[in-house]
Every structure is written in C-alpha cells, then in structure tokens.
Amino acid sequence: MARAGTLHDAFLDELRDAYDAERQILKALPKMAKASGSPALRAAFEAHLAETRTQVERLEQVFGRLEERVRGKHCDGVAGIIEEGKSVMQEDFDEETMDACLIAAAQRVEHYEMAAYGTLAAWAKAMGHTEVASLLEQTLNEEKAADEKLTSLAEGGINRGAAASAHPEKNGADEDAPEALTSARKARSAAGKKALRKK
Ligand code: ZN
Ligand code: FE
Ligand code: FE
Predict the structure, then answer these.
(1) Is 104 part of any domain?
(2) Average pLDDT in the 84-110 region?
(3) Among the bound ligands, the one closest to the CA of 45
(4) Three-state DSSP class for residue 77
(5) CATH number for the domain that contains residue 80
(6) I need a surface site. Which of 122, 133, 168, 199 has the fewest CB within 10 A?
(7) Tens digit of pLDDT for each residue in 15-65?
(8) How far is the CA of 65 from the centre of ligand 3 (A)?
(9) Residue 124, domain member (yes or no)
(10) How many domains is the chain built from?
(11) Which residue has the higher pLDDT, 183 or 109?
C-alpha cells in the first residue's frame, strides 16, 4: 500500500495549483485592462500583469529550491472566477458600472490568491522551508496591495460615478443622506407590517 501523503505533498499540490492559477490570471488581465473605461483602472490592471509575471517566476524559483520540476495543476477555483468575470464583460453595462464590475471580479481573484499564498507561506514556515516562505510572502504582500489598490479605485470615484447614473435623482447623495434614510426606514417598516400581517 502506498504511504499516506504528508503536508509536504499537499504543499507541492497547492504550489502547482497556484502556478496554474497565475498563468490563467496572466491571460485574463490584459482582457480586463482592455475592458476598463477608467485610465487609472486600466493602469492598475497593467501594473498587476507585470507583477503577475514576476509571481510566476517566483513560483518557478520555489520549485527550484524544493528540487521539484516546474509543473501546474488545473486550478478550478480561479477558472470559475475568471469565467464569471468573462460573462460580466459580455454584459451591456454603462462604462462606470462595467468598471465597478471589473473591480468586483478582480477582487475575487485577489482574495482567492491571498488565501492560497497565506496558506502556502504558513505551511512553508511550519516545515522549515524558510527561503521558500519568504518568496511566498512577497507574493502574498503584492496580492494584498493589488486588492487595496482596487478598493481605493472603487471608493475613490468609480462606485460613486456608477451610482450617480443609477440614481441621478439622488445627485451623488450617500446612504446617510436624510432622504435616503427616510425611504429606507419606510421600506423597512412596510416590510415589517407585511411580515406581521402574514402571522
Ligand atoms: Zn516540506
Ligand atoms: Fe498572483
Ligand atoms: Fe493577483
């Protein structure tokens, strides 16, 4: 009977998964850059594309240090997220809504990668693969920074712009505006009455 796999085996599997994920992301990012209306968002995707190339090389270095052949294993998780991103890009949204949706899709990818590299770095550290752990942490930090950059673009104007075309009458008012609060309260109390009637 084959011996049971160890954490090192699971680690290699996860590295192959990450390697394949990065290569899928390499193909998706230029499409997302192209679909961006905002020049700042486009630049952010292009910058992360360059970083992603470095991340692929870093994983190749990791395989080298572990004396393993460089190999990918299809990452279904990222494939699914990219698939969803593609269907969003086929929608007929106004420009700022599309940008908001591109950010939403990209942040799902970044969070997936943060989870993957967080685990990989922690496992490498636990097994005493110190240099490998620090390579993985470098990538983890880049993914976190990419995610934060996307948040700052969304909150720095893209969401507000998209919301303004969805609700021009609110004229850029935010949720805390008295009028919005009143109508939210009305909606809640109407829903409450309905629920009471049902009882
Ligand atoms: Zn190990
Ligand atoms: Fe990455
Ligand atoms: Fe990334």
Answers:
(1) yes
(2) 97
(3) 3
(4) helix
(5) 1.20.1260.10
(6) 199
(7) 999 999 999 999 999 999 999 999 999 999 999 999 999 999 999 999 999
(8) 23
(9) yes
(10) 1
(11) 109
